[in-house]
Design brief:
The protein is mainly beta and 831 residues long. It is built from four helices and 57 strands. The protein has a nine-stranded antiparallel β-sheet, with no helix packed on it. Strands 1, 2, 4, 5, 8, 9, 11 and 12 form an eight-stranded antiparallel β-sheet that branches.
């Protein structure tokens, strides 16, 4: 045989297990056509073991030095033809006898397969090797055998040849081929099928569901192997319902190196949407065609809504709280109280949900993990406390304020204790009431201390727990469900000291507030926090070391004179505070930049003093290299300059109107009404003594009324800076005049402006429209004098403007109004 003939024979003899084309897959046929084997030129590097395992088939006893691969029978010029193209299962590597065995997880009644055919004819011909397929039962006895012990040669093409091994009880089949060093041995198997062969996809594992943003997006992660699949089926369940499939099926592309991740914020097939902050359970299945895997483990996302609010005591000693701020969108607040709400499902009580999951009730466990306040804190037994500790400690606090509580680790007391605050009891109003009838349960805390060092804080981890034992029963037995971190810089005091695990506002006002609150997976809590939970009765909490993947979070605190509309009216001191789930010691560095300038390392608080809207960019990195991303951006608005004003004649009301102007924060558009008006009136022919405006001379038509007013204006910009302007107005018939008497910018001294007069006289048509207007404005004296006059004639629709001080003149179309303008204590005329 020449080399060319041997080459053709070796290609023709390639062997393969072949699946039917998509859309015609039978449950009893091994589907390998879903694999893209068209590469370099027709082999693919794929684990045949994994492929067969999906059908409960184990590949064993492969002749050493040979491989069993999936190949493309019709690619690269190949002439192999299977009955269900294009792939075949090929064994090669030995020209003098080789074999492999397939073991079946379920005994087969029959096993059908085909040998691939040859689409080419002529040339040097085709030589097909001797081969056999032998079926064995579980004891190793031969059950059936097919094959051809002789070589077969032909110059014609030939079709695939079907064969069947007959049982019952086929436990394994051995395929053998022999070419006696003549033809380059290979074995081509296609369409391997049996009634008992079913696609058995491996189930996803290690499913986790964590709370996402705004309570309407839940992050799902799971692990999956390398088996070829079409995608995943995700099912979602509310506590009182049944599992419903999500409308969207994720593709395998959501997986990287066996780790899969996707966000659920969509609808189920039945149209159900996620209720914000509801409780949802999940399971995931892999699917291939019409075949699904078994479901993964079931996991639950116990979503918590986080808020802050500002609370104070009213005159009767009642706690009054303001509007709630969602901590999903706000990294830092000036609120002194944190609230966490667990509302698992509308119209279902918390107690019903607890029983659904095998719990008696819910409570919270709160831990102080960062406390560097320079004071001594002890429990009720006198033991000094050092972070981390349970808040409140078992039995309550002994100092700095005596606060008794029960001897269980829960935040809300479950047993009555003499001297304990009844508002801190489970079932009280602040906890959400009786869980048998309430649809939600709350955590609430107003921690504060006047000795918190500048730039520091008190840090907490708080966990919603499902308690298995009845209320008040020891020892504690509970499951940690969902945790969150939160921090406070609130510095006010009650009787001069701070207070923890508290619902009462302090008696003294202070500064600071809640910041950097975020939901944290229980497995992501620091090891010492998880160990403390386990020591105090938590079940199902891992105490294995964690890999640090948590980036820090940075908050900016600003101190300066507060204006209005978010503006500061003086220099602002900025303090950056970085927190990390793994503790403050894990922070490596914090950097910042102002208004696009290069980033610099933060060392200490810094001052921003220039007027304008500033953008502060900042972020932190921890010692493991986890970087806060994206950088935080915060706006600082500063306007230290009071506004200015201008006065002009109003052709409609025939009055002098005052307007504000400001180049930084801006002003409210439109004229400003006087804050105060003092006025006098008299008539021609009256005595020189003034008459008040109640004088009935208005009926004396032969006398013309004269009015004199003293107007005081509070001119405000949007930052709250003020200019107080006083003006004297004199009105007589169709004329009005004004004089600015004083200016006061903020808290500065009152300024007497330069000599100034504003005089206006007008004529109107019968319809009241302006026919003529004379304007004359003067400011200053001699060299600094401005003397501007203007004459408007409606018929000509033109204003003649003359600058008497500079002997200038010009005509302007339409009506031009002269303005008397203030400028840092000075005045000038503008048009």
């Amino acid at each position: 045989m020449n080399l060319k003939a041997k080459y053709v024979l070796s290609i023709v003899s390639l062997g393969l297990l072949c699946l039917m084309l998509p859309g015609s897959i039978r449950a009893d046929t091994v589907n390998i056509n879903s694999i893209n084997a068209n590469s370099s030129p027709f082999f693919v590097d794929i684990s045949t073991t994994n492929l067969l395992a999906q059908y409960g088939i184990t590949l064993t006893k492969v002749t050493p030095g040979t491989t069993v691969d999936v190949v493309c029978g019709e690619c690269g010029g190949n002439s192999i033809v299977s009955s269900s193209p294009p792939n075949v299962l090929f064994q090669g590597g030995n020209d003098n006898g080789m074999s492999y065995t397939l073991q079946f997880s379920t005994p087969l009644s029959t096993l059908s397969f085909s040998l691939a055919g040859n689409s080419k004819s002529g040339g040097s011909g085709t030589l097909v090797a001797a081969w056999s397929a032998t079926a064995f039962d579980a004891s190793g006895n031969v059950v059936s055998r097919v094959g051809d012990p002789s070589l077969f040669g032909t110059f014609s093409s030939f079709a695939p040849q079907p064969f069947t091994l007959t049982g019952p009880g086929i436990a394994s089949v051995t395929f053998f081929t022999q070419c006696f060093n003549v033809c380059g041995t290979g074995l081509n198997i296609a369409d391997l099928s049996a009634p008992e062969i079913k696609l058995a996809l491996s189930a996803p594992t290690n499913l986790h569901a964590t709370q996402g943003s705004s309570g309407t997006k839940i992050h799902l992660t799971w692990d999956y192997g390398t088996n070829p699949i079409d995608g995943f089926v995700i099912e979602r369940e509310v506590p009182s319902g049944t599992f419903e499939e999500l409308a969207t099926r994720p593709l395998p592309s959501i997986c990287t190196s066996g780790h899969c991740a996707v966000d659920d914020s969509g609808l189920t097939v039945g149209g159900s949407a996620i209720v914000p902050y509801g409780t949802y359970s999940y399971r995931v299945r892999a699917f291939k065609g019409t075949t699904d895997s078994n479901p993964s483990n079931t996991t639950t996302s116990w979503q918590i809504a986080l808020f802050s609010t500002q609370c104070h005591l009213d005159m009767f000693g009642s706690v009054i709280c303001g509007a709630q701020t969602s901590l999903d969108s706000s990294k830092r607040t000036n609120d002194n109280t944190i609230l966490a709400q667990y509302k698992p499902q509308p119209s279902v009580t918390v107690g019903q949900v607890a029983r659904t999951f095998g719990y008696d009730h819910f409570n919270w466990v709160s831990i102080i993990n960062h406390f560097k306040v320079p004071r001594t804190v002890s429990d009720a037994a006198g033991n000094l406390l050092k972070a981390p500790w349970i808040d409140p400690p078992l039995g309550g606090y002994g100092s700095p304020i005596f606060q008794p509580s029960d001897d269980l680790p829960y935040y809300w007391d479950e047993n009555t204790v003499k001297g304990a605050d009844p508002r801190l009891a489970l079932g009280a109003l602040f906890s959400g009431g009786d869980q048998k009838s309430s649809e939600d349960t709350f955590f609430r805390d107003l921690a504060h201390d006047p000795l918190i060092p500048p730039g520091d804080y008190i840090g907490f981890f708080t966990t919603l727990v499902g308690v298995k034992t009845p209320v008040g029963v020891s020892p504690p037995d509970y499951t940690a469900l969902s945790s969150f971190a939160w921090y406070t810089t609130y510095t006010d005091s009650t009787g001069g000291v701070g207070r923890l695990s508290n619902v009462d506002p302090p008696t003294n006002p202070g500064t600071g507030g809640i910041f950097n609150a975020s939901v944290v997976g229980t497995d992501d809590l620091p090891l010492d926090i998880r160990q403390l939970l386990v020591q105090n009765g938590a079940q199902g909490v891992s105490t294995a070391p964690k890999i640090d993947t948590d980036a820090p979070t940075t908050a900016a605190f600003f101190a300066g004179p507060q204006g209005t509309n978010g503006w500061y009216t003086g220099p602002v001191t900025a303090t950056l505070v970085a927190t990390d789930v793994d503790g403050s010691s894990d922070i490596a560095s914090t950097t910042y930049g102002l208004d696009g300038r290069p980033l610099v390392e933060y060392q200490a608080p810094f001052t921003i003093s220039e007027d304008g809207i500033h953008t502060l960019q900042f972020s932190s990195v921890d010692k493991s290299g986890n970087t806060e991303s994206p950088d935080q951006l915060q706006t600082v608005k500063i306007d230290t300059t009071p506004p200015e004003a201008f006065i002009q004649f109003d052709p409609v009301s025939h009055d002098l109107l005052l307007f504000a102007r400001d180049a930084v924060s801006g002003v409210t558009p439109g004229p400003i009404a006087p804050a105060r008006v003092v006025f006098k009136e008299h008539h021609e022919g009256d005595r020189d003594d003034d008459r008040d405006r109640d004088h009935d001379g208005l009926n004396d038509k032969d006398r013309e009324r004269h009015t004199e007013e003293l107007r005081t204006y509070n001119v405000l910009d949007l930052a709250g800076n003020v200019l107080v302007l006083t003006e004297k107005i004199h009105k007589t018939g169709h004329s009005i005049s004004g004089q600015i008497l004083s200016l006061q910018y903020g808290n500065r001294s009152v300024i007497t402006p330069p000599r100034n007069t504003q005089t206006f006289a007008w004529e109107t048509d019968r319809d009241g429209s302006l026919r003529r207007l004379e304007q004359h404005l003067e400011v200053g004296t001699e060299r600094n004098e401005q003397d501007i006059s203007a004459h408007f004639d409606a018929e000509e629709n033109e204003t003649d403007i003359r600058d008497e001080s500079k002997h200038g003149h010009r005509d302007a179309p339409g009506l031009v109004l002269l303005r008397m303008v203030t400028n840092d204590g000075n005045l000038f005329v503008q048009f």
